[in-house]
Design a protein that fits this description.
The protein is α+β, with helices and mostly antiparallel strands. The protein is about 15% helix and about 45% strand. It is globular, with a radius of gyration of 13 Å.
Length: about 110
């Protein structure tokens, strides 16, 4: 997936989805998660922030993950990415695919497709 705002290079290894993601602009992923339980991502993720920073919102708290940090995100989160953020992320393929079905429908709706 690629646009001016976002570039994602993806691969699948066995049961894992791997993404190298570059957010060129401030990106709140919340609107893309609408319709999922609690309107939050339902996939776990393990990753590393190469550059930039992201804010992760949970139901009961928030955390900031910055360049040089390794992370684990359990299901039930919303990510907000600063402009210029680059991450590499590993996710269980089945959970990720189910979440992306809703994300893609929401994206198409937002873009008017």
């Amino acid at each position: 997936m690629q646009s001016r705002e976002l570039v994602i290079q993806e691969a699948e290894w066995g049961d894992m989805h791997i993404g190298y993601e570059t957010y060129n602009e401030f990106t709140d992923l919340g609107p893309l998660l609408e319709g999922l339980p609690d309107n939050r991502c339902q996939s776990a993720h393990w990753g590393y922030v190469i550059k930039g920073r992201m804010l992760i919102k949970y139901k009961d708290h928030e955390e900031t993950i910055s360049a040089g940090d390794a992370y684990y995100l359990p299901p039930g989160h919303i990510a907000i990415m600063e402009a210029g953020t680059e991450i590499i992320e590993f996710s269980p393929k089945e959970e990720y695919s189910k979440t992306m079905e809703t994300v893609e429908l929401n994206l198409a709706s937002i873009l008017g497709k």
